[in-house]
Specification:
single chain, 486 residues, alpha/beta, Amidase signature (AS) enzymes, eleven-stranded mixed beta sheet, globular, binds glutamine
Length: 486
Amino acid sequence: MELKELTLKKALNLLDEGKLSSKELCTLTLEQIKKYDPLVKAFLYVNEEWVLKQAEEADKKRKEGKRDLLTGIPLSIKDNILIKGHPTTCASKILANYIAPYDATVIERLKSQGVVFIGKTNMDEFAMGSSTENSGFFPTRNPWDLERVPGGSSGGSAVSVALRMGLGSLGSDTGGSIRQPAAFCGVVGMKPTYGLVSRFGLVAFASSLDQIGPFGLTVEDTALLLQAIAGNDPKDSTSAEIEIPNYLEFIENNLNTTFKIGLPKEYYSYDIDPEITKYLEKTIEILKKRHTMVEISLPHTKYAVATYYIIAPAEASSNLARYDGVKYGFRAEAKSLLEMYKKSRGLGFGKEVKRRIMLGTYALSAGYYDAYYLKASKVRTLIKEDFEKAFKEVDLILTPTTPTPPFRLGEKISDPLQMYLSDIFTIPVNLAGLPALSLPVGLTTDNLPVGVQIIGPQFKDELVLALAYQIEKDLSLKFIPPILKD
Ligand code: GLN
């Protein structure tokens, strides 16, 4: 059994046919982690005993004829999603010893569907970053080139899938944290519509933007994972009450459906790396054979990054106020209460998190609120309206996922603005609450993955998956990092 070519869907078939047990599959996955994780450092937590116990339970269920959607499938989970009884650190020293007291709703759902949790993955501290270098513990490396970043903040999740250390993963996306690392690592990553997937049990960064979503090796795998986690949850007041379609059936039935696809001129006139442009054009050429491609305009795009960097830090500064050394997490020794607050937060949070808290506190403070937060909220509405207008004309929108291929470790870490700009194509989608997916479409001359982004109208997540599935079939490429080949 080779993990290299094994998708989640294929693994399910093998498990169904009795050709493979979950214990065998999970043992292979653990071996893969032992072999490759020392090179890339994608995991913060792997508990072998727990993994094997879950796998045995899944095998037992199958023997009893109980097969749920994902029975026996090993998945990794970003370390800002709570799994009861196991650590959740958000890659922050302030939560280094925190054990989750309850399950996130997505975890509850995956448990009831028979998933085996293989471990918790590394990330930028509290999901703030685009390279996983802001982890409070260690950076993760890109499996395609160990000197480069895997993207972030869900870098560990993307790498675990790229190296088959788990057959899929859950990450979170506030401004691009699923799609950008997916593009950098040559896997599929999807941010669902805001409200499609419950945020209960996801450690909050910017609550009006955060959304949990899946990583898969293929579009089918991603669709299956979305199926498992989507749906209303009374524990999350922003969770929508909508009918969830059968995503796999939908993409299969729409393999030949033609769409009107918008190409936003503002995205295309941005300074994009020529290798990204090359694959984008190639994708457009393929799409032209079946679909109608039209130029569209999203005129407020140029304000998106600035708007995001007011709204996200403002929400973060309020969400992160709870880490004060009193209720949970790290507590510093101190002589007075005030000193204890200051020292706990001062020692517990990393540099980028502190920067965001200061930015956000400033933007929300009396006298500046109108000039910053209120203004940003208004621009956010304009960005949303740009998309609404566009979707009156087109079914879907195609853009690059990132302006460049994966950059080198250390290249952008000392220049936060450069780092922030790497999310220029993903951030508008979160501000508008829309579904979007990154699909790998090629490799640069340096053998680095390139992704394109498909954006859909609100709650039309299935359309996004359908177009991605068509492109994936047309291209018929496999993305296997060179270190897996030997
Ligand atoms: N890179 C962006 C940030 O630093 C987005 C992060 C995310 O989506 N969690 O905020």
